[in-house]
Design brief:
mainly alpha, Glycosyltransferase
């Protein structure tokens, strides 16, 4: 269980943030100099060098989005040109990519961030450039929404596994639909049928909250408050839910911690968006929607706090088969160099943002007790993550946050000489989300505009 540092001040992380952005800038420049883009998108490091891994093209937006975040945080114009130039030259195929559930990852992180910077006055206003970003965002939301499976009580954006498959990951990608809807767009289908992107977004959120998250309500004997399933399987003929499953976790009945983190972050940021909408704009009623979404957000954040080691860095799956060999591993800091099961720092980077955003929202709504608990838990995670052995200070290592895991069951992660488990490597999504959370916190410390994905108008 995380030992939450209730006395840790937000400003207490200021020095670590300054060091973080210095290291981050060096890594971005190193990747831009060394990486061979003809090999595809960089996914994770092997021996400190970014390499690709063909599965789906879901990380390129994190690569160029990281450079945009670097500019946002530091004013580094070279980083802006890396991010903006490559968005224009490299990201167009991602807008119309019909084969993935990752539009909110790739395109909100690039086109969305650039539009946000223009809206906030951090880059020069240009009407044609603005319309270019807006068109990309409108289309990406509609293409993502077309990847649709209808079930008895709604529907969801299905994963690359096929129409039967609901991934918990996609909770973070559904923001593509929210942005597109906010820009006045919709999906037009056969017979000129106009499909509301907001309604599809809410249905996907509802399916994730109902099926991917558990609430200790007797669904099965592993039904624990806040546990998540990576994948939910449906019968596409009759629309019925069939079972939990996992692609990257240990089993459908344990919790893959990066999937848990996606849910924490996704629900929290969508709650922030919903909270700012007028009641009449939300189908089903804003209060009702926020209630079930808040339940999911609190449950997943509670589970993370209860099932993560004392310093806030989780192991890759709460049911990983050799965790028992570590003894009382939840009562002490995580050990990335142990002989049995790897940690996943990328899950911590994603989860910390969910904890902070939910904590902030609850504080604003007058729930200081829960709000402070989640907020301080988020700070506790970052206090560990933004320091060694997780912050990558080796100038020759291209990764920013060490000890990330991609796909433990498939054995894709690099195991260094002398070790029995993967460690010492980074991932593009882990590095990006660490930067995103660092920017979020820095803006609060500096009393800047509150950072959201939807601050585009």
């Amino acid at each position: 269980m995380i030992k939450i540092k209730m006395g840790l001040e937000t400003s207490g992380l200021d020095a670590k943030l300054r060091k973080f952005w210095t290291v981050s800038g060096d890594k971005i420049a190193l990747i831009e100099k060394n990486y061979d883009r003809t090999k595809g998108s960089p996914v994770f490091t092997v021996g400190g060098k970014y390499t690709t891994r063909g599965w789906t093209e879901w990380t390129q937006g994190f690569q160029y989005g990281s450079a945009i975040l670097q500019y946002d945080a530091t004013g580094d114009k070279a980083a802006l040109e890396i991010g903006r130039g490559n968005t224009v030259s490299m990201m167009a195929p991602h807008i119309s990519h019909t084969g993935v559930h990752d539009h909110g990852f790739n395109n909100i992180s690039t086109y969305g961030s650039l539009l946000r910077l223009m809206h906030e006055g951090k880059i020069a206003y240009n009407e044609w450039e603005k319309q270019f970003y807006m068109l990309a965002l409108k289309i990406t939301g509609a293409v993502q929404a077309s990847r649709w499976t209808t079930i008895k009580d709604g529907g969801f954006i299905h994963s690359f596994n096929g129409p039967h498959s609901l991934f918990v990951d996609t909770i973070r990608s559904v923001r593509a639909l929210i942005v597109s809807h906010s820009l006045g767009h919709f999906l037009q289908a056969e017979g000129d049928l106009k499909i509301s992107l907001l309604e599809r977004a809410l249905q996907h959120l509802s399916a994730t909250a109902q099926y991917s998250v558990f609430y200790n309500e007797g669904r099965d004997i592993y039904d624990i408050w806040g546990r998540t399933a990576h994948e939910c399987v449906f019968n596409t003929k009759d629309g019925n839910y069939r079972c939990p499953n996992s692609q990257q976790g240990y089993t459908g009945f344990s919790t893959w911690t990066r999937g848990l983190a996606w849910a924490m972050c996704g629900f929290a940021e969508e709650l922030e968006w919903l909270d700012r909408q007028p009641d009449e704009a939300i189908p089903g009623g804003k209060t009702a929607v926020m209630n079930w979404m808040m339940k999911a957000a609190k449950a997943t954040c509670d589970f993370y706090i209860e099932n993560t080691p004392a310093d806030g860095i989780p192991y890759w799956d709460t049911g990983a088969p050799q965790l028992y060999k570590l003894g009382n591993y939840l009562d002490k800091p995580a050990d990335p160099y142990n002989d049995f099961e790897p940690v996943d720092s990328s899950a911590a980077a994603i989860a910390s943002q969910g904890l902070l955003r939910l904590g902030k929202l609850l504080q604003q709504k007058g729930d200081a007790q829960n709000g402070n608990r989640y907020w301080q838990a988020g700070l506790t995670v970052l206090d560990t993550l933004f320091d060694e052995p997780y912050l990558s200070t080796d100038p020759n290592h291209e990764g920013l946050i060490l000890h990330s895991i991609y796909h433990r069951p498939n054995g894709w992660d690099h195991i260094p000489a002398g070790s029995r488990i993967p460690n010492g490597e980074s991932s593009m999504w882990g590095d990006y989300h660490a930067r995103e959370t660092a920017l979020y916190l820095q803006r609060i410390i500096n009393n800047e505009t509150y950072y959201t994905f939807f601050n585009i108008q």
